[in-house]
Amino acid sequence: MTTVIQANNLDLTYQTNDGPVHALKGVDLDINKGDFVSFIGPSGCGKTTFLRAIADLEQPTGGTLTVNGMTPEQARQSRAYGYVFQAAGLYPWRTIGDNIRLPLEIMGYPKSDMAQRVTEVLELVHLEGFEKKFPWQLSGGMQQRASIARALAFDADILLMDEPFGALDEIVRDHLNEQLLELWARTNKTIGFVTHSIPEAVYLSTKIVVMSPRPGRITDIIDSPLPKERPLDIRDTPEFLEIAHRVREGLREGHAYDD
Amino acid sequence: MKSILPILTVVAAIFAIWYAFAVILNAPWAYSKAERADKTLSFSEMVSDTMAQDKPLLPAPHQVAVEIWKTTALKNVTSKRSLVYHGWITLQATALGFAFGIGLGIILAVAIVYSRVMDMSVMPWIIASQTVPILAIAPMIVVVLAAMQVDDIVAKGVISMYLSFFPVVVGMVKGLRSPDTMLLDQMKTYSASPSQAFWKLRLPASAPYLFASLKVGVAASLIGAVVAELSLSQNGGLGARLLAGSYYGQTIQIWSALLAAATLAALMVFAISAIEKVTLRRMGMAQ
């Protein structure tokens, strides 16, 4: 097992008008190659901040953070990760195919290579035949799948996802979770996934990181004993419920002195 | 065409009001003429007189229509009495000034979006420039440019630009800033260069804002050209027609020049709307 993301005693403090806000405090975490890691916790626990720090969108104020053995900035410049935001963020003036081509154009991929990659990733997210459609012609779930395809289009081994299905309804979300697992199994990417849904975190992850706010910190890290092959009805098994229970306990603990 | 009836109703109402005011405003002159001729006017005589005066206070719509017909269809377009001739002169200055205005507006908007110093220092001056009455500043600019041996059409274009760059700056600044933090962060995750972020994200995102600005700008541009022609009237133009009309009390000529200018403005706005529709549809932004 190689460690791809390593955080040691990571601190991140924002200076605001009401004084400093400790978004992250003393975060230690190792993420191995091929892991599916979920970050779960109430708002303000720093889960998104941690993901953004990995992506070099936030600057830690203390401790060390390495991605593929490099600083986050170097990792970003060497295109180590694809990032999926909460909203699909597709450009309305580009077709789905052209949206997926966007990062490839920016990174200077040859034209012949682009077409093949677009076909490949559209197939991965089951959007074959939608290449020529504009974003507004797709449903919310399909748009988010297109946005995942875009993040997969270049060869990043790490996929960072910030509540990608947060705005979708539960039925669509179940469906996308299933597809995401299938995609993960096929591509063997390392995935960091922020969510505030306990079933989603337990269903998807090999490792669940439970976080709590003020200051943002990790309260529990759960290595999931569930098999890699997961049909949706695994969510009714005792093992699943047991992990879900432990996550819930972890979340409650973090809140104990808050009320 | 469900909308045709309401539109015709409004047009009819406007004509009715126009005729009513023509009668009211022109009646004193009709009465005073009759008095000097020792006649008394019946109501219907008075009404028909108000609609056929040579220099009425407010010409009746049909008088303006006849004048426009005489100075467009019945005149050679090269004649100095042709509205088409004067309209063409004004249109050239308007188009040149508008092109200047678009260019200047976009350059300033890019500078303002990318430089905080420009934003803080130039923006207040741009706003201040628009509070200066154009009627006061236009003759000065025209005189200075004439002293520099600048071509007439360019001098008029400068006034047009002065009025038309402003909506373009305001719209483009808003448009270039329209991509939200998430989209800009996304560009950062691709390690995109600032110029890539500009050409691939900011500029296309500003297209709908630009078109809204262009529609305002082109009308302002025409006003600029007409105002400039009040100072530079020797070579004609709709502004020169307005000026000549007011020197000689030719109200019918003034009104027909005004209507010609309004028609020109409407045509230009329609043209831009058409370009907007085609462009945005091609960009996939019209649903």
Question: What is the topological layout?
Answer:
The complex is a heterodimer of chains A (259) and B (287).
Chain A: E1 3-16, E2 19-32, E3 36-40, H1 47-54, E4 62-67, H2 72-77, E5 81-84, H3 96-107, H4 111-124, H5 140-152, E6 158-162, H6 170-187, E7 190-195, H7 198-204, E8 207-212, E9 217-223, H8 238-255
Parallel strand pairs in A: 3-7, 3-8, 5-6, 6-7
Antiparallel strand pairs in A: 1-2, 1-4, 8-9
Chain B: H1 4-36, H2 43-50, H3 61-72, H4 83-114, H5 116-129, H6 134-147, H7 152-176, H8 181-189, H9 194-205, H10 207-231, H11 238-247, H12 251-282
Description:
The complex is a heterodimer of chains A (259) and B (287). Chain A is of the alpha/beta class and 259 residues long. In chain A, 37% of the residues lie in helices and 26% in strands. A six-stranded mixed β-sheet of chain A has the order 5-6-7-3-8-9, with helices on both faces. In chain A, strands 2-1-4 form a three-stranded antiparallel β-sheet, with helices on one face. In chain A, strand 8 and strand 9 form a beta hairpin. Chain A is globular, with a radius of gyration of 18 Å. With 287 residues, chain B is mainly α. Chain B folds into two domains: 4-54; 83-282, Orthogonal Bundle (MetI-like fold), CATH 1.10.3720.10. In chain B, helix 4 packs across helix 7, helix 4 crosses helix 11 and helix 10 (207-231) packs antiparallel against helix 12 (251-282). The interface between A and B is medium-sized, with 25 and 20 residues. Chain B: It is found in: Cell membrane. Chain B: This is Aliphatic sulfonates transport permease protein SsuC.
